[in-house]
Amino acid sequence: MAVDIKNLNHNQLNDLIAKAQSRQTELRKDKVVKLREKIHALIKAEGFAFDDVFGQGRAVKGPRKSGGIVPPKYRNPADPEQTWSGRGKRPRWFNDALKAGKKEKDLAI
């Protein structure tokens, strides 16, 4: 099936490209399924289980902590109410203090 792409307009060409990419994805998925079946058959023929060869998967280490409050690490000498944990974007007062010649350890709590 030869397609003369020189006679296609912009929309037809984009449609052809989308269909070709879709077909390419389908072929890749089919190939992966066939390969997976071959691997399972080989493992079974050798008398092993999939988990014997590749393990049980990722072990769960426990609940993940998220969104916790981190204690402040730095304090603004001009305004002790302003603190920064050292995470995320540096506050303006921190950058200004560094430009003024102070060091990070001078601002540490």
- Written as H for each helix and E for each strand, in order along the chain, the element string is HHEEHH
Low-pLDDT segments, ≥5 res: none
User: Strand share of the residues?
Assistant: under 5%
Strand order of the largest sheet: 1-2
Task: Please state the average pLDDT score.
Answer: 89
The percent of residues in helical segments reads 40-55%
Coarse shape: flat
Protein name: DNA-binding protein H-NS
GO molecular function: bent DNA binding; DNA-binding transcription repressor activity; minor groove of adenine-thymine-rich DNA binding; transcription cis-regulatory region binding
Keywords: Cytoplasm, DNA-binding
Pfam families: Histone_HNS
Structure explained in plain terms:
- The chain is mainly alpha-helical.
- The chain has two domains: 47 residues; 34 residues.
- The protein has four helices and two strands.
- The protein has a two-stranded antiparallel sheet with strand order 1-2.
- The longest helix is centred in the N-terminal third of the chain and has 36 residues.
- It starts with 9 loop residues before the first helix and ends with a helix.
